Amino acid sequence: MALPIITIGRSFGSGGRLIGKKVATLLNIPLYDRELIALTAERSGFHETVVEQMQQDRPASLLYTLTHTSIEVPLQDKVFFAQTKVIKELAAQGPCVIVGRCADSILEQDHHTLEVFIHAPLEMRAERAEKVYHLEAKNFKDLVKKKDKARKAYYDYFTHRTWGKADHYDLCINSAIGINLAADIIARAARAMAEK
Amino acid sequence: MALPIITIGRSFGSGGRLIGKKVATLLNIPLYDRELIALTAERSGFHETVVEQMQQDRPASLLYTLTHTSIEVPLQDKVFFAQTKVIKELAAQGPCVIVGRCADSILEQDHHTLEVFIHAPLEMRAERAEKVYHLEAKNFKDLVKKKDKARKAYYDYFTHRTWGKADHYDLCINSAIGINLAADIIARAARAMAEK
């Protein structure tokens, strides 16, 4: 069997993107992360800034939706549907690594996938946000928690799964065990699936 | 650094015990699973049957506790405390694999640990309960769900963590990727931790 499509969900600041990059290099397959923003923008006609913002916002609450009813599909949903198409097209081209974007849920029915979730202790992620991502914040732990909250809300809204619940994934890894080790484990699991 | 103590939590029927056994063989370290029942019985003075039953029962509800107040510590708590002592003594002797028994939470503060959670799809676990464990049930899926519910209640009660939530563990593995592969991944991570 071919290598699986590897989807990587990740808590903010856990190094999931870097791990994805290393996995793609180890397996010599394409990585899609921020590239998806440009592709979605191209397909949907929205500007890249809009696409990016829509993925970082928490979806509108039910109360908001009920009080602002309209026959128009919300912008965030439109962007999500455009991105879903992009992800399905890329997956149809062969094995790859896709970081975030609910790709695990989008591809689970039709594809041979290895679904991964990367997390790390809060202290480590706060440090990463400050020293590696060079973000600005008064309190980095609060920033990380806020980003996680938005990711969870976005994921739970669009997938009807629960973000970070172990049994939704094939592998969940605490990146504190080591970024290279995490990438090795994922690549090893993917190769083993290809040999089945 | 030495090999870590490997704790393996697992959903019912996921093959966590078998994976633990394979990891212990790969690393040539002791495995403690059902042995803990005998050791706890010995230390606490309770019969093995009582110890085993206490670990399978859901802890008493708050309502029950409030309406049955007594100065006596509940039997389940007594057994848990005795087992906690046994686990700490074993951990002090050196690297080992401990299956279940909230060992992850018991040892997290004082020991060099690799905390693992094993799960698998419901269908696979129901089949395992029937064909590998040779249990009897009208509906094996219901049996597995009921066992999980009791494990979760027991774990959440005694640890104040949430059973099966990815970020409590270093590695969560869906055993559907392969029992041997899962054992290999855990052993590899343990060896990498020892080399740090």
Taken as a percent bin, the fraction of beta residues of chain A is 5-15%
Radius of gyration of chain A using CA atoms only: 17 Å
Query: In what order do the strands lie side by side in the largest sheet of chain A?
Result: 2-3-1-4-5
CATH H-level homologous superfamily name of chain A: P-loop containing nucleotide triphosphate hydrolases
Count every helix of chain A, treating DSSP H or I runs of 4 or more residues as helices.
9
Calculate the mean pLDDT score of chain A and round it.
87
Question: What would you call the structural class of chain A?
Answer: alpha/beta
Approximate helicity band of chain A = 40-55%
Q: Based on Cα principal axes, name the global outline of chain A.
A: globular
Biggest interface found: A-B, 25 and 25 residues
Number of strands of chain A: 5
CATH architecture of chain A: 3-Layer(aba) Sandwich
